[in-house]
Amino acid sequence: MTSFVTGLVLGAGSSSRLGEPKQLLDYRGRPLLQAVVETALSSRLDQVIVAIGGAAPAVREAIDFGSAVVVENVAYTTGCSSSIVAALDRVDERADGLVLLLGDQPGVTIETIGAVIDQLDNQPLIVCRYDDGRGHPFGFARSVFADLAGLQGDKAVWKLLESGRYPVDEVARPGPVPLDVDTWDDYRRLLATEATEGTAR
To answer: Taking the domains of the chain in order of start, what are their residue ranges?
Structure first.
């Protein structure tokens, strides 16, 4: 079993397409980023790091980070890879692996995080395979950390996964890829999905 795994929540987005901090949008009565942080802290992750950047003062005031380590990424406008680079030196030296979570994707479950953790013993790169395609969270063994430190721009993690430099293992997860929020339409779809699932329950 992998002995120590760190989770990194990417919550530094500038929310340029929304016009206000998506981290603070209401989701189940609390800020969107809060929901993801709570899921990460409730999972089997041994350490949780949260990268913030856009609207950092308001995010710090609104979010209860609990035991998570908060890293402020001053280069957040250059892409999400900068948040990974900013957080790597705060990863516990005991960490054998890293699970990457999106701060605007609250539909990722504790069980999915656990499934990624379990597979980190088998391959250096882990990606979730949902019914309609690949998606987060991703898992990285320590052997990949040097490559993570050299990432630049947006979608760089996807490019690393597709580069062929490392074997990639897929973890099968039920349902569609969990929704993330970049636009108001995305947010409305997220709330509509929640309402539909709530009715079904």
So the answer is: 5-200
pTM of the model: 0.92
Helix (H) or strand (E) holding 86: helix 81-88
- The structural architecture, per CATH, of the domain 5-200 is Alpha-Beta Complex (3.90)
DSSP code per residue over 20-62: S-GGGSEETTEEHHHHHHHHHHHSS-SEEEEEEBTBHHHHHHH
- Measured CA to CA in angstroms, residue 91 lies from 23, 49, 55, 166 at distances of 23, 8, 23, 21
Q: Does residue 112 contact residue 70 with C-beta atoms inside 8 Å?
A: no
Q: Is 66 left (phi over 0), alpha (psi -120 to 50) or beta?
A: left
8 Å CB contact between 5 and 96: yes
In order along the chain (201 residues), what is the average pLDDT of each group of 10 residues? 86 87 95 98 98 93 97 88 92 96 96 95 92 96 92 84 90 95 94 68 38
The structure tokens listed for 126 are: 């882990």
Give phi and psi for 154, each to the nearest 5.
-85, 155
